[in-house]
Amino acid sequence: MAVSSIRDVEFGAELPVFEPDTGLANVKRFVVAAGWNGPRFTDHEAARKEGLPGALVPGILSQGYLAAMIHRWAPEALIQNVDTVFRAPLIVDEPCSISGVVTDIDEEAGRVEIDLTITNAKGETRVFGTAEVKLPA
Amino acid sequence: MILDLHTHSIKSDDGRAKVQNYCQWIKTRDIPIDGFVLTEHRQFDNQSDYNELAREFGITILKGSEVETEYGHVLVFGVTEALQQAFDFSDIHLPLAKVVEDCEKHGAVAVPCHPGRPRVGMHAHLETFGVPDGVRIVEVYNGGSRDSEDEIAQAMAEELGYLGIGGSDAHIVSHVGRCATRFPTDIHNESELVEALRAGDFEAITNRQ
Known about the structure:
With 137 residues, chain A is α+β, with helices and mostly antiparallel strands.
């Protein structure tokens, strides 16, 4: 159920797990729109020639996934910041899942903090971070 | 007693967790640890006093550090004022031999962490620098490990006869307690932690699924 007010939120609440589309077609659409159209994001072979494990999901797309996840959970949330630490690259066409949990609530300010973790199919953390979100009273 | 020996708070440059939220998380989620050690990057946090928080939540909160050497990152337990004078914690090129020697001299313990990790782990540097003197313990379970990093650490520990600890390397609240270390006795402060590590009676554990 979507969250519409900070009163609906409890410490430790889990956001529904989100499995973003990391497929090549979707990533291509994104990089073209973002003006980042380069082979390291759209061509596995070219990326491997650069010494990368495969074509990369751009970091700003990962942040977009995180924002999308938050809005699926709370459509009226005002995302104040998404602070990410990139531990390892997300690879195009490799499935990943995003989990989120509420780790701080300031009811007076209408603000919650959310831990966000992107893991690959092996359960390894690739990206983690926190988001600060304002929710209606 | 189970302690997560490797955590970071907002005092670390890449840490995003408030210590109070670690405590809330551990209690709310029944995380199977009795406490944790804050090992902030390249510094020792002399300012913060977590005693009241520890009492409020019934959780042991200790402080250490994570420094950087030519062999990669190293946890330091039992930091004293004298140890902080002995070397510059913010130096990213500390010689491991000096860290180990100074720790020995000032009643502390140095433990290379995530030793199976490329670049920042000890195993990657053995070929270049050789097996370092004085290391007795390494981190064999790290909550942030990927691929076969923990396996490399465990194989290295077995080959070189090192004891192993576990720590989550948590930088955000919900990662605390993923790995930890079990001790047979209670530990109330940093001196007792050093004593327990020197006694060698502990076991690395993982709570990862």
